[in-house]
UniProtKB/TrEMBL annotation:
CDD domains in alphabetical order: TlpA_like_family (cd02966)
Pfam families linked to this entry: Redoxin
Organism lineage string: Bacteria, Pseudomonadati, Pseudomonadota, Gammaproteobacteria, Lysobacterales
Record PROSITE patterns: THIOREDOXIN_1 (PS00194), THIOREDOXIN_2 (PS51352)
Subcellular location field: Cell envelope
Disordered: annotated segments: 1-23
InterPro entries (UniProt xref): Redoxin, Thioredoxin-like_sf, Thioredoxin_CS, Thioredoxin_domain, Thioredoxin_ResA/DsbE_sf
Protein name: Thioredoxin
Lyase keyword on record: no
Keywords: Cytochrome c-type biogenesis, Disulfide bond, Redox-active center
The Thioredoxin domain, residue ranges: 16-155
PANTHER family tied to this protein: THIOL:DISULFIDE INTERCHANGE PROTEIN DSBE (PTHR42852)
Length: 155
């Protein structure tokens, strides 16, 4: 799964590691309004899944993420999708595979939000678990298998 072509992050980008605070990430939602990632679900853990509509494994895991998000209810882990994609690509995909959780949009690049979240290899899907106090707990490169999220998200 190594990607030798992934560029090194710029010197001013400090990729998060477990134990680090959630980086200050502000991105547009599907409605175009800017959202601060840390304020989506105050006091709740966040599971941030970085994906793209053109990424086969990302597409395959979306129903599993949707199932997990629905099972969490209003007080459990808040799932957030972070799409490294165009608004048109994401809108077209979500019309075919709708999800209930928030989706944020980002332009891929050497200093995009996924790099700040610790994805230094530039591969997708990439998932980060943030605890209720805003600290990065776990990071995962690659898709979730059916039923894997519950065990992985326990911290």
């Amino acid at each position: 799964m190594a990607d030798a072509t992934a560029p090194k992050p710029p010197a001013d980008v400090q990729p998060a590691r477990p134990g680090d605070p959630l980086p200050d990430i502000r991105l547009a939602g599907m409605d175009g309004k800017i959202v601060e990632l840390a304020t989506i679900a105050p006091g709740r853990p966040l599971l941030v899944n970085v994906w793209a509509s053109w990424c086969g494994p990302c597409v395959e895991e979306m129903p599993e993420l949707q199932r997990y998000a629905r099972a969490q209810g209003p007080t459990g882990v808040q799932v957030v999708g972070l799409a490294l994609d165009t608004p048109e690509g994401v809108a077209g995909f979500l019309a075919r595979v709708p999800v209930d959780y928030p989706i944020l949009l980002e332009t891929p690049g050497p200093a995009d939000a996924s790099v700040w979240l610790g994805n230094t290899r530039g591969l997708l899907p990439y998932t980060v678990l943030v605890d209720a106090s805003g600290r990065v707990v776990k990071q995962k490169l690659g898709p979730f298998e059916h039923g894997e999220i519950e065990g992985w998200a326990r911290h």
